[in-house]
């Protein structure tokens, strides 16, 4: 197998995650001003991304902060996860699956507590790559350098052998600053071409 490694982001890359407008709908339903949900729950969202709160604590904070009963909290969290999980980028996932015999594969994602179980149930990312590294499990978010070095360590690869594919420019730039190659995801054809070029250089 090639010494090359390719690491993918999830949301906006392996998952198609358009904005659904669920926050605005809940703000209208609760007669809150625009942006109020993120203003009131911003600390919860941040804590959830680094695993500083549990899923039960998130639900309790949502319920208490917004004054929701159990059924409303269930609906709120369902809408949150519907946007978060999006739909499969089937073409890219199929391509990545075919790469298993050609290179080392990993995933590095800024995530939210509970994401592994839901994404594994829906998309089986654990079968797609050797390591799935989630920020809510490691406590480290991109573009912090340790997120990338930890991922390389878990995959037993050198940063210089890796191509990192993400839809946010700051995350790609951080990877490049550590000696990784980076590709800013915009569409599948360009991402696939970048991977093929990366692998060809190792041939």
Largest sheet: 5 strands, parallel
Question: What is the overall pLDDT average?
Answer: 96
> Strands of the biggest beta sheet: in what spatial order?
5-4-1-6-7
The CATH homologous superfamily of the largest domain is termed: HAD superfamily/HAD-like
Overview of the molecule:
Helix 10 links the parallel strand 6 and strand 7. By secondary structure, the protein is an alpha/beta fold. It folds into two domains: 127 residues, Rossmann fold; 64 residues. The termini are close together. The strands form two sheets. A five-stranded parallel beta sheet has the order 5-4-1-6-7, with helices on both faces. Strands 2-3 form a two-stranded antiparallel ribbon. It is elongated. The chain is 54% helix and 13% strand. The protein is built from eleven helices and seven strands. The longest helix is centred in the middle third of the chain and has 16 residues. The mean pLDDT is 96.
